[in-house]
User: What shape does this take?
Amino acid sequence: MSLTGFQSVGPEAITKVEIPAANEWRFEVDLESKLLVRLIHGNAEIFGTELARGMEYEFTGQHAAIYTYKGCTIEYAGNVNEYLADTTPMTIFANLHFALEAQRSQAQSSLAASASGPRLLVVGPPNSGKSSLCKILVSYAVKMGRYPMLVNLDPKESVYSPPGGLVAAPISHILDIETGWGSSPASGPSPLHPKQPLVYYYGLNNIHKNPKHFRESTELLATGVKRRIAEDKHVRISGMIVDAPSALTDGSDSYESCEKVVNDLGITAIAVVGNERLYSELTRRFTGLTVVRLPKSGGVVDNDDTWNRKIQRLCLQQYFYGVPRQPLSPYTVTVRFNNLTVWRVLERGSGENYNDYLPGGGEDDEGTQTEEEVLTKIEPSAILQNCVLAIVNANPGDPANIVAKAEVLGYVHISEADETRHQAKVLLPVPGGLPSRPLILADWQYHE
Assistant: This one.
């Protein structure tokens, strides 16, 4: 039996670090390395979730920080870039949490049946720490016994779903320290309480590639969120934390998508991270909302596209094969091409004519304009090989506008597409046959 964790390394490979009060220990570990950490003395947290004293944590492919309010001692082993920082925005983030908590308490004491907690939209430029702030605020809310609704609108992020999905999930238990948000039945295994997300598949890596599809998917997600909030008093009082993609406020579509998100989700406040000009612009545009400016943490790392693609590949791998502590055994089936119904998400720029993507320039046989579509049906072929497709809750014969509005049931991977035999090998996360449902092809591939 092989040794694991700190037992697998010698005492000389273990380093002890004293973290002073109100300081954080920042670390960067790549995908080919492994970092082991354990808390020896004091109290500490990662993105708002407390570390258990004496428990070993394993990190791979992460840029994070261990923060302590009163000081602590940790031990670590592994190949990692690390340093101590005495300047952090954690006190400011904590004050924001207290302000949100005050609004929750006010909603809880209100006699109005429809009283609800704060609905915060977090925006900012790329690599500004938006997702880190959302994790902290959600974790702090859970510590207070709240059930905040988390909404992720960034299709490049893998929050309770492989990349491409727009996700909403009420959070009632602590987040997973090792993986960040943790996982769900739509993203893979988890030793913690699984989340039950609502997922709609946008499928592209930038919201400007098909803004119409993004806005429609956001509206559908908002409808589901509002329904859950109306039925669950705990979630309604706890409010909502919305993690927005940087493209939502880059001005490319004159902030139309941002305004729609604010209206659809009933946003009451906006937090702008690391951009004074954006703060000024949103303060001018949203005069009826509270807009706050927050500093960018010095520990935020500027991740390039190569790093982001590696992380997305890791998330896809974990969806099918699990994680080291909880592996999965996916199931492969062979499916005939004529038993597959495949749609592809159309890519459009915000300034382009949508009808140009339709046959005949958007006119039917009688010369009249047809309804704008966001999907196009394709014939199964070798183009599907190595692609990850979303299974949606619709019927194979449904038209594009119905398929585009269907929620995600799960994902499959086409490991082989044989045009000679007209069949494909499909990797499923669970045993059984491929459901008779439409599949949506988009930007993401996975090469085993």
